[in-house]
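Exam revision sheet. Question 4 asks you to relate a sequence to its structure. Input first:
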Amino acid sequence: MSQPAANKPRIGPNGRPVRYFEMPDTFTGKLRVWRYIIYRRIVQITILVLFFGTFHWGWTLLGAPLLSGNLSASEVAGLVPLADPFAVLQILLTEHWLNTRVLLGAIIVLGFYTLVGGRTWCAWACPVNMVTDLANWLRVKLGITNQINVKRNVRYAVLGLALLLSALTGVAAFEWVSPISILHRGLIFGMGMGWTAIVGIFLLDLLVLKHGWCGHFCPLGAFYAIPGRVAQVRISYDTPTCTHCGECVRVCPEPQVLNFKKAAQNGMVASGECTNCGRCITVCPEDTLKFDLRARIRSLPRHSTPSAIQSTEENVS
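Answer key, structure tokens:
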């Protein structure tokens, strides 16, 4: 991941020599670099364990099942309803009315991800993320390149198609084939033939297209990117310290969001497509990036540098 040192160091737009990320030698240093990956895995696995423990071992809270149901619709201790707002929207388009508690659950979930970042779901909660991250790790190790090029906005077309088919067919179209639901139900209730869909996504991301499923095709990610545009938890960008080394772009699963010109104007990565995974933060040699709140970032003075790297969008698909 680190860059070879040149005879003459490159100078960044802020006048400072460009430094590149180097993995620390110590274990504690490595843990610091891996911290957000570790945090995300703890959250993802904890969610699965809570569902599993409630179903198989009868875990309870306040005399009610601790976390019953699935990722489409569930309840915490029989008190707090939770529901996938995208699934609920599909069902509503089929002209089937839903229980008021399910609608309330969808509002609660949508409100939560509107605050913390819509696609925070993708990096911190979705079980398929663990599969696709493994595929990407292997791609890097094996030096596998893309076999096809696909624009990232295809996922919005898939989102629209899922909603249209739901309205036309009378069934929640994406829920019928969602690998997210398939993997979750399989891990909790038994996989059956569902493993074929998960293997298919793994092979897509490994052999065909980098970040193929999450970055190009998943309609749920496209759905959460919409409320993510106004999310309060953002990655702030400290313009004066940035040398434009590009390390953040290299590790980001959505590199098109790292438009440094816009980040300098806004003081943050404002795109709703950012997953708030934190990878960029841990590889930045200048500590330019960090988690912060949109309201606080906006209250700070804006800075600029002599030049700004243009959007990386044309270099990623």
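Marking note for examiners. Residues 27-57 form the longest helix (31 residues).
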